[in-house]
Amino acid sequence: MPSRPTRSNSRPAAQPAPPLPRARPGHRILCTAYEGAMSLDITGPMQVFATANDVRARQGLAPFYELALLARHAWSECAPDGNCTVLVPGGDGVELAQHDAGLRRWLRQAEPVVQRLGSVCSGALVLARAGLLHQRTATTHWCRMDELRGIHPSIAVDPDCLHTYEASHPQGRHIFTSAGVTAGIDLALALVEDDLGSAMALAVARHLVMFVRRPGGQAQFSPLLTPEPAHAPRLARLLEWIPGQLGGDLSVERLAEQSCLPPRTLARVFRRELGTTPARYVEQVRVQAAATLLGQRQASVATVARLCGFGHPESLRRSFHKHLSVSPQAFAERFGTG
C-alpha cells in the first residue's frame, strides 16, 4: 500500500505587511465630532493641517489637505477612501460616544479602507470599544489609562508617550493614538512631517510658535508643573519642595521624612494621587529640569547631569532614552535655543 503523504503542522512564516503609500495631494482629514468633544482636540490638529496649506500657498503651491469636520452624525453619510486620515477627538462626551454603536460600526468599516485612523486624547476609548486597538500599543490622557486598560487585556497601554504614530512602521502608521490635548498637535505635526517632509513640519511649527515636534515617546506632562492641590492635596508641599533639591538626596526615605509619612504610606499616596511611584516622579522631574538646561545650552552634559542629581552623564543618557527616546546631546541639538 502506498504511503500517504505526511501533513506538515508547521505554518508558513507570516509575511511582513507591505508599506503604506504616502498621502497624496487632496488628502482628506476627517475629524469626527460629537456632543461634549473637547474643542482643542479638534481645532489643535486641524489648525496644523490648515497652516501647512497656508505655508504651501505662500510658496505658490496648491493646498495639500482637505479638512472636514463631521459634526454630530455626519460621519454616517461620509464615505472615506484610501487617501483619508480619520481622527477621533476626546472630551467629556466620550463617555457616551464610546458606546455609540453607529460610530463604532462606521470606524470599523473605515479602518480597512482609509490610509490612517487615529485618536486624540480620550478618543482612544472610542477606538478601543470599536475593537481597533486589540493587540496594539496605545496611549491616552494619563487620567484615562486604567479605563483604557480595562476595555481589553490585549491593548498594550503606554503611559509614557505623547503618541504612537510611527512613520517607519506600517502598523504604527495605520492606527495610532495620542495623549492629552496638546499631544494631538504633536501628532498632527508628525503626520505633516511624514506627508510633506521635515522642512514643512519645521515651517508649520515656527508659524505656530511651538517645538518642531516633540518626540512621540516623550513623557506626557512636565512634572515641574506641580499638580493642583485639589489633585494631590497630601503631596502639594512635597511637590513644591522637590524641584529645589534636585542635586541632593531625593531617596524615598528622604521624601518620606520631608512629608512626615512612612515610606509605604508615601508610596500609596503617590500611586493614588499621581499614578506613579516617588522614585519615578523624581526621575521625571530631573529629566525635565535637565531638558530645560540643555535646551538653553548654558551648560555641558556633564554639568547638567551633576546639577540635576544624575551624577554621571551616562545615568543622564539612560534616563533621557527612557523618558524622551533621545540622547541628551541630540536633544540639545534639536531643541536648543542658546
UniProtKB/TrEMBL annotation:
Gene3D superfamilies: 3.40.50.880, Homeodomain-like (1.10.10.60). Residues 236-334 form the HTH araC/xylS-type domain. The keyword Transferase does not apply. Pfam families: DJ-1_PfpI, HTH_18. The keyword Transcription regulation applies. Keywords: Transcription, Transcription regulation. Residues 1-25 are annotated as: Disordered. InterPro entries: Class_I_gatase-like (IPR029062), DJ-1/PfpI (IPR002818), Homeodomain-like_sf (IPR009057), HTH_AraC (IPR018060), INH-QAR (IPR052158). Residues 1-10 have a biased composition (Polar residues). Transmembrane segments: none annotated. PANTHER family: ARAC-FAMILY TRANSCRIPTIONAL REGULATOR, HTH-TYPE TRANSCRIPTIONAL REGULATOR RV1931C. This is GlxA family transcriptional regulator. It comes from Comamonas terrae. The lineage of its organism: Bacteria, Pseudomonadati, Pseudomonadota, Betaproteobacteria, Burkholderiales.
